[in-house]
Amino acid sequence: MYDRMVNFHGLKNLIWVWTREPNDNSWYPGDNVVDIVGRDIYKTGDHSSQLTEFNTMNSLYGTKKMVTLSEVGSMPDADNLVGDQAAWSWFMPWYGSYTRDGANNSLDLWKKMFAHSYVITLDEMPSLK
């Protein structure tokens, strides 16, 4: 995909995210083609910072890449992120029941997260023009 998009089509403005799963290190395409490394975590009701995973990602990739929670079932509570200094570049709760049924993320947690000073929402982003 990288070769097709970059070398064949000449696209130069793409950001390449590698999402790691345990035991798939041999699939990592290399620092020269990966911009951001991510992790998918689906632990129902676990709003911890996922500090162990954060440290693992930084250890594996030598702190050379931004690290992200590419997909989560239950989002981390921002207070836990701050307290543990787990500076994930972003987290993305998955859709459907993960966002609606309250088993993974309560309405109160959604409200807290959007209002938290540690979390940047789209309306708070600077203009990049």
Features:
single chain, 129 residues, alpha/beta, 5 helices, 29% helix, 16% strand
The tally of helices reads 5
Basic shape: globular
Summarize the helix and strand pattern as letters. Answer: HEEHEHEHH
Q: Give the count of structural domains.
A: 1
Report the sheet with the most strands, covering strand number, pairing sense and barrel closure. Answer: 4 strands, parallel
Into which percentage range does the β-strand content fall? Answer: 15-25%
Explain this structure.
By secondary structure, the protein is α/β, with parallel strands linked by helices. The protein has one domain. Helices cover 29% and strands 16% of the residues. The chain contains five helices and four strands; from the N terminus they run H-E-E-H-E-H-E-H-H. A four-stranded parallel beta sheet has the order 1-2-3-4, covered by helices on one side. Strand 3, helix 3 and strand 4 form a beta-alpha-beta unit.
Secondary-structure topology with pairs:
Elements: H1 2-8, E1 17-20, E2 36-41, H2 51-60, E3 66-72, H3 78-84, E4 91-93, H4 97-100, H5 107-115
Parallel strand pairs: 1-2, 2-3, 3-4
Compact overview of the structure:
This protein has 129 residues and is an alpha/beta fold. It is 29% helix and 16% strand. The model has no long low-confidence stretch (mean pLDDT 94).
